[in-house]
Amino acid sequence: MEDNVSKIKDRLDVVEVLSGYMKLQKAGINYKGKCPFHNEKTPSFFVSPERQIWHCFGCAKGGDMFEFVKEIESVEFPEALKILAAKAGIELEQFQPRSGESVDAKQKLYEICELATKFFEKQFQSSSGQEALAYLRERGLTDATIAEFRLGWAPNDWESLSSYLKTRGYQEKEIIDAGLAVKRSAESGREGVYDRFRSRIVFPIFEVSGQVVGFTARVFEPSSAKSGQPGLAKTGETMAKYINTPQTLIYDKSRVLYGLSKAKLEIKKSDRCILVEGNMDALMSFQAGVRNVVASSGTALTPTHLRLLQRYTKNLGFCFDTDQAGAMATRRGIGLALAQQFNISILEIKDPECKDPADYVKKYGPQWSEVATGAKPVIDYYFDRARSSYNPTSAESKKQIISAVAPFIKRLTANVEKAHWVAQLSSLLRVPESAVSADIATFKDDLDSYTREDSAPETTVPIQTVVSREEPDVINEMILSLVLKAPMLLRDEIMAIPDCLIGERLANIVHQVVESEPFEFKTFVARFTGEEALQLEFAHLRSQELWQGFDDETLKTEFCNIINSAQRRAINAKLTNLQFDVKEAEACKDRERLTRLASDFNELARQLILTHHIYGPKEKTQETVKEEIVSEIKTETENQTGQENSL
Ligand SMILES: [Zn+2]
C-alpha cells in the first residue's frame, strides 16, 4: 500500500491533480485558489508544488493529494488510492490476478456477470420466479420493461448460481471476484462458496457501454417459502431490503448510475437529465415515456456520478422522495451539483398518495411527462415551499425562509437575478432589502456540507467562526509560522512564547526550531512524521504566503499581536468559565463561593490588564482596559450562547 502511495506521488503533481477539480493560479512560488471546502470571496487556499501539499488558511483543511481526493470526492482512502492510481496509470496489486493480465481478469468478470444475468432472467420461469414476476407486474412494470432492463429472479438456494457458473468452466475465485458468491467461513465446517443473492428480485447494473457489471437485489419472499424451509433467509430478521454487488474490478458504485446506458442518448437529445432515487422510479419513468432518467440507486450522489453526467448535459432535474430523508438527500445532491455548475430544477409530485415517481407513474401513467417538463428552477421551488408554510407572526418562520433560499441566492452570478430575489423576500417578510441582503450574506450555507458524508456537527458551526483568528489551531499555526520565518527572534531572546499558551507538543517543536542553526525547513521537517509534520508544512506554507517581504521590526509587531491574542484567548476562556460559576453560585446563594470567585475574577482581570500593558499597542488607562475586559467577556459569552439567535 505504502509503496503504491509513493509510486503515485512520484508520477503525479499535486498542482496537476487539484487543477482537475478547481481553478488554481500561480502566486509566487505557490499556487492559490478559492477553497472548494468553504465559502469564500478571496482565495485563501494554497498549494505548494515544492512541498506537494495544500492548505486552506480559512477552514484549516489541508494535506497531500490523497487527502484532497478523499475530501472532494467524499471517499475513503482505498477509493482515493484507486482514483489516483488510475490517473497515474498504475495498476494496484490487489486487483492484479496472480497469473495472466488484468484485461483477461476483467473480461472474465464481464462474462460471468452476463451469464449470471441470463441465469436470473431464466429463473422467472420457476414457480417461485412466477410469483416474483407477478409482484413486479403488480407494481406496474410491463413485461417489455422487465425484458428491456433484464430483471431476473435469484432463487432461494445457496448454490444454484455458483454451481451453474462452475459447470460453465469458471473457478470459485472468479465467481467471488465477480461479487456473486461468498466464501464459506471456517466455522461453517464446509468448503466452497455460496450464492450472494438468494430469494431476491435482481436488477442488473449496466455500465455506460451497456455491459452488466453488477447487481442490486431486492428481497422477495415467495409464498411457497413462507412455511419456513431450512436455510431460508426470513424477512424481518437482519435482512436488508436491497443488497448490492460489492466493489469489484469492474463495479464501483460511486461511478455507476442506474439506467444511464439506456438513458444517455435521450439525455443528450433533450439536454437534460432527471435524477430519481430508486431503480423502480427509473424503470417506471422510462416506461411512461420519460427516458432521460437515471437513479442514484439508494447510494448518495457522488461528485464522480456528476462528472459522469456532465458528459451528456449541464441540466439536472431532481426528483427524490418527499419524506424528510428525501429532502436531506436532495439538498446534499443539490449542493454537490451546484459546486459542479449544473443548472438545477426540482420535479414536484403533488399527490400526497404518491411518495415517489414509481407510485405516480403507476397511478397516472404518461401524465408523468407533465411533471417532468413542469420542473421548477431550484430557487423558485424552495421559495414557494417556504412561502406556503410562512407564518408572518413568527420570527422562526422568517428565519426558515431565509435559510431555505439564502444558499441559492448567494450563488447567483447575475446581479439582476439576485436583486429580484432580495426584493421578493423583502416584500414577503416586510423587512428592508438591506436587512435581507445582510442576512443572506451571513446565513450558514448548508449546501456546503456536501464535503462530508456525516456533516451534522459541521453544519451547526457558523461560517464566520471558522475563519476567525480566535480559532485555537489558527493562532497556533500563526505562531509557528512566525517562528519558522524568524527563528532568530526567539534565539536572541528578543521574543518569548510561554509554553502554556501553545501546548506542550507545539512548544517542543518551537524549541527544536530555535535550536536548529542554521535553520533549513526541508531538512528540519524530515525529523517529523504524521500530524506534526503536517502541522509544520501548513505553518511553513503560511509563513511563505503571509510574512513574505516582512522586515524584522514588522515581524516583531506581528509576534506581539499574535501572542497577545493567544494570552487573551487563554484568560478569556477562564473568565467565561468564571461567569458560569458565578451564575451557579448566585443560583444557590453560596456567598462564600461568590467571594472566592470575585477574587479570582480580580486576579484574571489584573492579568488581562498586564497583558494589555505588556503587549498592547498603546498605553491605556486602567479605566479603558476595564471597559474592554467587560465587553470582551460579553462577546465571549454571546459567542457561546447567541448562536440560535443569529437572525
Ligand atoms: Zn477552506
What's the helical proportion of residues? 40-55%
Q: Name the overall outline.
A: globular
pLDDT below 50 for ≥5 consecutive residues: which ranges? 95-101, 227-237, 451-472, 615-621, 640-647
- Average residue-wise pLDDT: 82
Which helices and strands, and how do they pair?
Elements: H1 2-11, H2 14-19, E1 25-27, E2 30-33, E3 45-48, E4 53-56, E5 62-63, H3 65-73, H4 77-88, H5 102-122, H6 127-138, H7 143-148, E6 152-154, H8 160-167, H9 172-177, E7 181-183, E8 193-195, E9 200-206, E10 212-219, E11 242-244, H10 260-270, E12 273-276, H11 279-287, E13 293-295, H12 303-310, E14 315-319, H13 324-339, E15 343-346, H14 357-364, H15 368-373, E16 376-377, H16 378-388, H17 395-411, H18 415-429, H19 433-442, H20 456-459, H21 463-467, H22 472-485, H23 487-491, H24 499-502, H25 504-515, H26 521-525, H27 530-546, H28 552-587, H29 591-615, H30 622-641
Parallel strand pairs: 12-13, 12-14, 14-15
Antiparallel strand pairs: 1-2, 2-3, 3-4, 4-5, 6-9, 7-8, 9-10, 10-11, 15-16
Q: How would you explain this protein's 3D organization?
A:
The protein has 647 residues and is an alpha+beta fold. It has five domains: 94 residues, Zinc finger, CHC2-typedomain (DNA Primase, Chain A, Alpha-Beta Complex), CATH 3.90.580.10; 150 residues, DNA primase DNAg catalytic core, N-terminal domain (Alpha-Beta Complex); 120 residues, Dna Topoisomerase Vi A Subunit, Chain: A, domain 2, CATH 3.40.1360; 86 residues, no CATH class; 171 residues. The chain is built from 30 helices and 16 strands. The strands form four sheets. It has a five-stranded antiparallel beta sheet, with helices on both faces. It has a five-stranded mixed beta sheet with strand order 13-12-14-15-16, sandwiched between helices. The radius of gyration is 31 Å and the shape is globular. The site of zinc ion (ZN) has 8 residues, from loops.
